[in-house]
Amino acid sequence: MNIVDWAVKIMGDLGGIGVALLLFLENVFPPIPSEVILPVAGVTAGTGVNTYWVILLWSVVGSLAGAYVLYGLGRAFGAERVRWLCEKMPLLEVEDFDKSVAWFDKHGRLGIFFGRMVPGIRSLISIPAGVYKMPLGQFSLLTAAGSAIWNTIFITFGYFLGENWHIIEPYTDTISNVIYVLIIALVLWWIIARIRRNARRARAAQDSVQSGSTDTTD
Predict the structure, then answer these.
(1) Out of 15, 64, 144, 217, which residue is the most buried by the measure of CB atoms under 10 Å away?
(2) Is there a domain that residue 197 lies in?
(3) Residue 105 belongs to some domain of the structure
């Protein structure tokens, strides 16, 4: 039985809870591909086994639960010990862990939201959040929001394609790359907007100082 057949059986037997379980495992064990599991979850909704919104809700619950495990791992053990674990576990790539840490260092808290939609680091991004002791409430909100967007995209594909969902399999990498480009564009927009805002504040502060100096002179 391959992973797709296994996923279909789990969802068929457990319904929405099965979707949550699979997404939990996908987060804890990144080699399990969400790009395959999520369309299958959409198919189950499209065939009437569960409603679309129930499947989507359970998928976010599963994603969040898995993220909590990795967040706790990062908080409890720290970056070096977790990296050592990644080196020893055969199904994990230490390069993915390094990329997730670099992503968090570069983008900060918003990196959690955007990182949930970036293939290769979407699961492991939870670890640096724990390492840096990001507030749990903030982590939960950003993780749930990012996961909801990612899950919605692929569940919707499966929902509308129905039994023909497998035709998107050859294109999942392309879809992921398109999403990645969109995320980069959003991050760049945010950085540019922040730089402009800081520049305006600096000019306002400078004008205030100059105005104060003029008043003193008078």
Answers:
(1) 64
(2) no
(3) yes
